[in-house]
Design a protein that fits this description.
Elements lengths: L4 H38 L9 H26 L2 H27 L3 H15 L5 H14 L46 H42 L6
Helix pairs in contact: 1-2, 1-6, 2-3, 3-6, 4-6
Amino acid sequence: MGVEGGMKCVKFLVFFFNFIFWLCGIALIALGIYVQIELNNTLQITNPSASGAPIVILAVGVIVFFISFFGCCGAAKENYCMVTTFAVLLTLIFLVEIAAAIAGYIFKDKVKTVIDEELRAEMKRYRNDSNIAKTLDDLQKSYNCCGAFNYTDWFDVKEFQPHSVPPSCCINGTDCTKNPNENNVHMEGCVSKVEVWMKKHIIIVAAVALGIAFFELLGIIFACCLMKGIRSGYEVM
């Protein structure tokens, strides 16, 4: 005989919230993959910290996906051990998310530094690596930018002729490579453009994480209520 009355309602609530977690886990996995692909298309990542955020998002998504599946089984079978394990794991995930949010806020200013270092390192390899050259050209064309801070950053690249820039820096296909100026070259650097892109997507990630955290908190509460109901004398199916 399964749980009855109010506990039966709690059981279905736990099952419902786990289904929401399952969907959130899939969303996080998709978001982590998307951000990682976009970063790889923007920069040839050499610094692990630069790809840390999408990897964390992807890892949390996978963990949430499996924990939610575990919780659904526990709620459906009214198994005290499974529901307890689910509540403990969900609480740990909730605490990890809070810690990650705090760490992200503390180190948010480091993102710009990492992007700047990556970009300048790639600029030095522009002439010697065709893949990096293509990546930088695509970046500068897509974001209408040139160099790290501005187009004069290319003047410091020894492989280039003095005071020259790549064709991808030119406005509307004009020839600015040997005589770049404010009339024929993109004036804004790529670091600020990429930073704006990342901040925009970080807001999306933060909104998704906040929504998941809210549902997690409710899930923990309902799981604890179900645990209490089962332990108080309700027979496990």
